[in-house]
Amino acid sequence: MNSPTQLPIVFVKKIVHKNRLVLLVLFKYNDPIIAQLRSLKAYTWSNSLRGWISFFSDEKVTEIQKVLHQKARVVLDASVQLPLLKKGLRKSRKLTEENTLLIRQYVLYLQGKRYSESTVKTYVSFVADFIDHIQPKAIVTLTNRDVELFLEAIFVPRQYSISSQRQFISALKLFKSFYPDCNIDELQLKRPKRSKILPSVLSKEEVISLIRCTKNLKHRAILALIYSSGLRIGELIGLELKNISIDRKKILIQNSKGRKDRYVVLANHFLPLLQNYFLTYRPVRYFVEGAPGKQYSASSVRKFLERSCCAAGIKQHVTPHTLRHSFATHLLENGVGLRYIQELLGHAKPETTMIYTHVATKDLLAIQSPLDTILLSLTKDDKRLPAAGRRTKLPVIRK
Q1: Alpha carbons 126 and 132: distance in angstroms, whole number
Q2: pLDDT value at position 363?
Q3: How far is CA 81 from the centre of its chain?
Q4: What pLDDT does 61 receive?
């Protein structure tokens, strides 16, 4: 039997291809792997992608892992692996009664510190996974080396993001404060530097196309409000009708990230769509509801947004937060000051808002390349000289 290092590598990705979500399988030519894929009768060869594709589903990911088990080393792209791995890790977690009790007390500790519900869930999940991984080792004997081994065994092979690793370190620092008996030195726990990734932004034309291609009235109202007011997905879902002031054309966002309130704008051109939506659906408490008086789910928004992007022919990966990024970038391109954009977005630090200066194109495109500047100056000088003394133009190299 081949060792894992000798097995051929198969890369599995989730992409949008021809306006549909597909699973893309990439590998060097290998007859046994091709035979296995053909036996599934769901995969076809794509000349443009140079790989095998099938319609995407979580079941398809699990299926290909089982079929190629011991035949290849299947490497899942981050877009398909993170949700599955996290889900599987929680299901397989087998904490002792003592550790389970400790985790429950850690939950109460975080809640007493007034951390948000989502932060508590994230931190507790990371710490529980860590404790489950190091069992049966006693928690009081844990050291920083145990943390390093966990990162090497879990985070690196599964390609967890830098952001997730930073959250894990933050969770451990708080766990050390809660349970000081362990030998972990929180001062020696270092968070990796943040990734300086530019936000994904849609053009103004793409935003309009996206909204137009969203035929469902409720879905269209949701996407239009997220973009026109720059809302986070959690702010949209928790938005109550009492906080929408049509007369003042403002929306009050309460208890947002960082437990802050702020006002955002209500666009004039959104009002007719808003009125039509209210008359049709008649929400009871929240702007958008699943059942009467109950909050809508964030997963539902992400699902219909994906369908709308396919209908609009938008190839890039778009999330609700992409619309918020687009809102900020378009405001900056329209000449709105960073200070005002910071207030509208609810950013605590101006440095967070300044990232949009790197994706705004209006001023950047107005900058002339030094090559253009030099040639323009030479052209002006040439016009002042007699024909015999004129310089030649930049040579064109032909193949």
Answers
A1: 10
A2: 59
A3: 14
A4: 81
Q: Residue 165 belongs to what H/E stretch?
A: helix 162-178
Report CA-CA distances (Å) from 102 to 64, 120, 327. 38, 15, 44
CATH placement of domain 204-358: 1.10.443.10
Return left, alpha or beta for 194; rule: phi > 0 is left, psi -120 to 50 is alpha, else beta: beta
Q: Is 250 exposed, middle or buried (0-12, 13-18, 19+ CB in 10 A)?
A: middle
Domain 93-188: homologous superfamily in CATH:
Tyrosine recombinase, N-terminal domain (1.10.150.130)
Half-sphere exposure of 219 (CA within 13 A, CB side): 18
Question: What is the per-residue pLDDT for 279?
Answer: 94
Write out residues in the chain with pLDDT < 50, as ranges.
1, 4, 82-89, 91
Choose among 238, 223, 321: nearest CA to 285.
238
Distances (CA, A) of 272 to 165, 244, 280, 301: 45, 14, 12, 21
Tokens representing 224?
A: 């239009």
pLDDT of res. 2: 52
Q: Which residues contact 244 (CB under 8 A, 6 or more apart)?
A: 251, 266, 287
pTM: 0.61
Neighbour tally for 68: CB within 10 Å: 21
* Confidence (pLDDT) at 366: 64
Q: What is the pLDDT of residue 87?
A: 39
Cβ–Cβ under 8 Å, residues 359 and 330: no
Active-site annotation, residues: 232, 257, 321, 324, 347, 356
